[in-house]
Design a protein that fits this description.
Elements: H1 2-20, E1 25-35, E2 38-47, H2 50-69
Antiparallel strand pairs: 1-2
Helix pairs in contact: 1-2
């Protein structure tokens, strides 16, 4: 259990830092025009909000620290 806490914590911490560095994004697709069954769509990248990175980093740090400090 201790190793799992440390591993998950470090993964979340690294992911949070990755998002905070500006590298986290996702693709969003919007329908521009639709006439009958024909439609024109546009796909563009959107950045993840910084609060997602901050939350992931904080939760990851707490989990990793908890795993390191857990006795047993």
């Amino acid at each position: 259990m201790r190793a799992v806490l440390i591993l998950v914590g470090l993964v979340l911490l690294a992911g949070g830092i990755w998002v905070l560095a500006g590298h986290g994004s996702y693709q969003a697709t919007d329908t521009l025009v639709q006439i009958g069954s024909a439609k024109v769509t546009a796909t563009h990248d959107k950045a993840l909000p910084q609060w997602v990175g901050i939350a992931a980093a904080v939760v990851g740090a707490v989990l990793a620290l908890g795993g390191f400090l857990k006795k047993g």
